[in-house]
């Protein structure tokens, strides 16, 4: 999952700041916000550290994003976008989904299956898994025997 924002102006400052993994970190320090004067007024202000124009609304959105934790199912499907490189982020997300078996689950859940048929398939999969494990064990025994000279 890629994080999206309510307005373009909220996202602009994040995209322009490619120096950190979490672009919100640079402006999150409330003390630095107060000293740069960005919390007062409603016009555009320039942050002295990163030279980004930021409005008070943008600061509020940024603080909301920092305080909102990612929980539940979304947390396992979230990757960070580093330096605005979305292609790499999408590849990492795809890798993470494949590792978690999401495409396989999607295929399995595409059609309804009767309970009896599901149980039969489950037994068959268990047998195949156990057979594969036993076969691998047998191959290891044969390799060990050949190594010992039998």
UniProtKB/TrEMBL annotation:
The keyword Ribonucleoprotein applies. Pfam families: Ribosomal_S21 (PF01165). It comes from Candida glabrata (strain ATCC 2001 / BCRC 20586 / JCM 3761 / NBRC 0622 / NRRL Y-65 / CBS 138). Keywords: Ribonucleoprotein, Ribosomal protein. Belongs to the bacterial ribosomal protein bS21 family. One of its GO terms (biological process) is mitochondrial translational initiation. GO terms for cellular component: mitochondrial small ribosomal subunit. This is 37S ribosomal protein MRP21, mitochondrial. InterPro entries: Mitoribosomal_bS21 (IPR052837), Ribosomal_bS21 (IPR001911). The lineage of its organism: Eukaryota, Fungi, Dikarya, Ascomycota, Saccharomycotina. The keyword Ribosomal protein applies. One of its GO terms (molecular function) is structural constituent of ribosome.
């Amino acid at each position: 999952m890629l994080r999206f924002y309510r307005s373009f102006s909220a996202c602009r400052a994040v995209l322009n700041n490619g120096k950190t993994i979490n672009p919100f970190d640079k402006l999150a320090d409330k003390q630095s916000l107060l000293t740069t004067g960005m919390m007062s007024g409603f016009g555009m202000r320039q942050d002295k550290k990163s030279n980004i124009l930021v409005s008070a609304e943008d600061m509020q959105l940024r603080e909301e994003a920092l305080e909102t934790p990612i929980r539940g199912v979304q947390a396992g499907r979230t990757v960070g976008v580093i330096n605005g490189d979305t292609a790499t982020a999408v590849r990492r997300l795809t890798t993470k989904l494949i590792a978690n078996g999401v495409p396989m689950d999607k295929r399995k859940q595409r059609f309804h299956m009767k309970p009896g048929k599901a149980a039969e398939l489950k037994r068959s999969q268990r047998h195949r898994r156990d057979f594969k494990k036993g076969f691998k064990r047998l191959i290891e025994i044969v390799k060990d025997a050949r190594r010992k000279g039998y």
